[in-house]
Prior knowledge:
- The chain has helices at 10-14, 19-43, 59-67, 94-97, 119-123, 128-147, 161-171, 174-181, 183-197, 212-226; strands spanning 46-53, 75-78, 105-110, 150-158, 204-208.
- Strand 2 (75-78), helix 4 and strand 3 form a beta-alpha-beta unit.
- The chain is α/β, with parallel strands linked by helices.
- The protein has one domain: Rossmann fold (3-Layer(aba) Sandwich), CATH 3.40.50.
- Strands 2-3-1-4-5 form a five-stranded parallel sheet, with helices on both faces.
Amino acid sequence: xxxxxxxxxxxxxxxxxxxxxxxxxxxxxxxxxxxxxxxxxxxxxxxxxxxxxxxxxxxxxxxxxxxxxxxxxxxxxxxxxxxxxxxxxxxxxxxxxxxxxxxxxxxxxxxxxxxxxxxxxxxxxxxxxxxxxxxxxxxxxxxxxxxxxxxxxxxxxxxxxxxxxxxxxxxxxxxxxxxxxxxxxxxxxxxxxxxxxxxxxxxxxxxxxxxxxxxxxxxxxxxxxxxxxxxxxxxxxxxxxxxxxxxxxxxxxxxxxxxxxx
Length: 262
């Protein structure tokens, strides 16, 4: 995938942030995510964020950073396993519709309905007819989501061949072997997916991830910029006085304290 000059030079993108700089920026963004969460709750907004990309591109790291300080009652991380035999007989979109947000919820799809355009197509887990139907019908499905008040944001995580290979060697798994071997099959599948589903209404936003720390900050910053949230005024909290003991005495109980190793 061609580099976007707006994203800075390759040297700037690969330059590592020092730990303190990264943690400071991440904490600031996570604070804004909590503020966005309050807006979602107060307004009943519905948000879906789709995370797709090459294997080992760093999707999980970004999702973990997003989830770290928000409420799991508002932000939900969804990573579906392989479909059951029953789910295989359903409408393809039916499986995902069940997990779409109600008012006041943000759903993070770690892989999504785009499995059909990518791994299912590349690995032969669906028929050519099913694949072509998906590409044809997907824009309409996403338009339906938006027409029903869902804010849909789609991210594609791109990693270079060299960096993907380095990450695979650190974590090698059975599916990684095929992903590594089929680099160009996945490239063609991604190109066809973009051609069919990168629409003005539901565009793909591409995250360059060779530098994981920068990718996390860039993605969260972008997410905060495309969701139309605003800060909700909060009443100042004042702790009430604690009640008096009224004769309560702590029992002499032999508590099983865990070892303090740290």
